[in-house]
Amino acid sequence: MSARLWKRPAAALRPAPPLLLLLPALVLLPLLAVLPFQLHGGGLELLGQFAWAALTPCLDPLVLGSALRGLATTVGMALLGWAASLVLGLALGLASSRTIWRSCCGCDWPAGLLRRLLAVPRAIHELLWGLLLLQLVGLQPVVAVVAIALPFGALVARVVSDLIDALDRRRLNALLSAGAPAPSALLTALGPPLLPGLLSYGGYRLECALRSATLLGVFGLGGLGTELKLTLQSLQFDELWTGLWLLLAVMLALETGLGWLRRRWLMPSRLALGQGSVGRRGREMLLVLAGLLPLAAGVGWALGVDPRALLAWQALPLAGLGQGAALQQLLALPWAALIGGTLGLTLLAAALAVGLPPLLLLLCAPWPPLRWLLRFSWLLGRLWPPPLTALLLLLLLQPGLVCAALALGLHNAGILGRLLAEGLADASPALERALAAAGVGPRLALLYGRYPAIARPYLAYGAYRADVLLRETVVVGLVGATGLGSQLLESLSSFAWEQLLALVAVYALLTLAGEELSDRLRRRLLAPH
Known about the structure:
The protein is mainly α.
């Protein structure tokens, strides 16, 4: 009896679902407390010039031509890397599905083994892949494509295998019991229900590939990212905004096109239009997929992407970990401080990214123009690569944990803000309208009318972004921020290959552990309550 009474207060203290969205924003309290001590104010005039340049971008034909060529290279690399990752991910996803192995061979242990092996390329950020391949094969156009395709392919494989294993097996079992061959039974039973999830995730991956291609360019792999970094470092803000507005136009066009295709192919209202509509949508999908093949081939030819360049690689001059000097140098690294800095950066940036969008949207609820301005700022946050944000923040802040966390947090807040807006648009407005009709203010109506429906799915995706953020800490670390990334830059610049490989291995182990934790948190958030 006493034990049951003791447990009740703990359950009563559990926050309500809408308040769960706002809990991560509590990180703003300590952040605002230390932020004044991080300011130096030396770049206020430059920040004013940067803001004004957004309204007066350079329209010189030479600058426009250079930006357009860089943008075409970035879009081409993103398209090729995305297409290769889909092919690779689909093949590996089928090969790592327990359902497929049980249906074809009667056992599923090979699927589990392959899943563990695929965790390694998935754990290494595409920037690290790009820098490693750059040292192995030199500055080749194929480097950026492969750097995107490897981790993205492993991510797609994980999603494909999870989607297949989560599908209802009753239709598949019925076909197998009727004597149908396993391959045709799998295609007939699992193909149609798998297609919507695969198309939706594939479109999202294309947007990620565009951001990754821009990021790789910032670190010297060509494209618009290189142009953006050079113009920022030379303080040519008007030329910088020329490239940014062009990139923004491409991203908006991409999001609009993908959204239109999702509504046309995947909306339930269209699924109910009959067999003729289903067949027409299927033909449209096949035509689009067939059109991607010659498009990818033409883009690869135009960019000079030659996969044979990967064969002419040179081995890294490793001294050997068995030698005393190399091992001593590895042990001399401040591993505890490096790992602690990386984990602290991840937690702080994740709390900012998850907590800022619902808090800001709640504050702007009474004023529709502010809500549109907020959504536009989320779009800019997704557009602006975190290393460039870190360089811009250094005009006002001292380098370190706070600057790096703000750069990562603002970028990922743009991504999560878009997800929050889409979730709220899909949620039923009935309760919010009822509360507003009863005289409740717009903030409380939003908080208790719509936030409860999307709280747990949003936080579940936030847990996934925290896993992604752990990989992305290398991005701001490489501009001298904090954690393992700054040591990676130092090891790379001094050609200390043993240190570099050891740091990459530690990064991979950390991201694998973070992936496991985020998976458990997502399952707990999405479990029935």
